User: What shape does this take?
Amino acid sequence: MIPYNRRFFLEKLLRFGAGFTGLVMLNGCTAEYVSRQPICEEGPFLKLLPPDAGLTLYGGDEHSIRWVAGCVDFVRIEFSRNNGINWVAIAEKARAAAGQFSWEVPQISSDLTLFRLVEISSNKVLAISDAPMVLIPKLLLVLKNHPELGKVGGTLTLDRPAFGQFSIVRTGEATFKVLNLNCTHSGCPVDPENNGESWLCPCHGSQFSKLGCVLRGPARRPLSVYDHKFDANSGQLIVYNILSEPSSC
Ligand code: FES
Assistant: This one.
């Protein structure tokens, strides 16, 4: 028999758990077989862990969405990129007892991302993120796959949905500049000219150097640059969809 005080403790555990069946070791020498459903006196319960406020997630990374659950069998996991105006399902039917789901972060920009958990049997939202998170698209390039960047001065122009057109210039053995190719006058895409030595805006004629500096107006600001990180050991260049004005021009 389970002593009364231990029964009380077990009862408490089961009240917030998802049920339990099996042998319970009580003091190293006594065991009792227990098989029962949770009491659910306080109704179904879900809570997201940990608080997500201020978290920044990068496109393509795995993020573990974690929660605690009581008296819930299955959940639908949803995310919103616009602070709860629209919701998209990440997982249609996840086991609540699993307590976690690995999510591949999509390649989208958002600083108003939320998660929520919906109990499937009642279709009720039982948990929602405490505060918005930030999603930033990320691109990984393995340099050996891009011979255009094999030498200093080499350039590579790419087009990706989360970035649009951009150009990478190798400025040194381990340094790069990653240019956003939208003109800083009114946003038209610029075209290469002079065998890739400069950029010309077809809208009002602004001209930029290969490194994005203004050669001729009406644009006054250089082309914006993307944040990036280069790992010389692995030869990987990671580009983040975070734009800033270049410091050198
Ligand atoms: S948009 Fe490029 S010069 Fe006006």
Notes: Residues 4-16 form the longest helix (13 residues). The pocket of FE2/S2 (inorganic) cluster is lined by residues 183, 185-186, 188, 201, 203-206, 218-219 (CB under 6 Å).
